[in-house]
Design goal:
alpha+beta; 8-stranded antiparallel beta sheet; two-stranded antiparallel sheet; 3 helices; rod-shaped
Amino acid sequence: MYIGNECILTFEDPVCESFLKGDLKFEIVQSIEPVESRPNLFIQIPSVIQCINPSVNSESGKLKFSVQYKPSELYVLKSASIIFDRPIETYYEIRGRENVSNGSCSCSEVKLGYDSSLDMLYLNFEEKKAVDSPDISEYALVSETNRLLELEVSNMEKMISELQRENNELLLKKEELEKRSENIKSEIEDLRTLKEDVSSLEIKKYKLSEDIRQNTENSENTDNLREQLAYFNDILRYYKSDDGYDTISERLESIRNEIDEIALHISQLAEKRSVVISLIDDELNI
């Protein structure tokens, strides 16, 4: 029968009474198959069938099971079962979200399957087969293995969560390092530009120092030249005449003429002096 994907399955006495007394035991098993196999595929599989608190009053007791299945893209339900350690005969009730069904059953296994075409669970009451069905101890072993696997998967999920957290922290550090690296690259580029500017300034400084040195030498040479020109100016002033500048030979000739003229004047003065002295002597002898 189809029961939907969520319901409460109830077994009334004597099942609940036998369970509470310890005369009846059961195991819940399920078979889940991954949709595809791929690396790092960790699936947390919820239990399709869960036993909930038995309801007991003065009149009767009810053994209750919660049934809930949510289809997933990662896995598919093959089957889920409640396996009793002996056959039971009892009245049952299946209470879903929209409908309720009930009746009597005689079985040793309540088996659920999933119809993907209708997206619904279906339920069968089955008798335990002596040859094909494993006994309850085998189911207990499978159930314990399944529980351990679920625990291992849970631990691995926690580990993955921690690794993801560490990975996120590493990604943040990586982003910070990349940002610092970009800043360092920018600073290096600025330093390279600054180095080029300094080199250019050093070249300009060298050129300016050379220009200053040459200007200093030129200034000194200019002063020396001015001093020399001053000497030549005095000399040239000496050779200057109304008609321009005399040559050295002309100037020497002129000097000779002046010397001759001076000598003549001195000779004439000497003659006049001699005459005057003679006249004075004549007067003194009278």
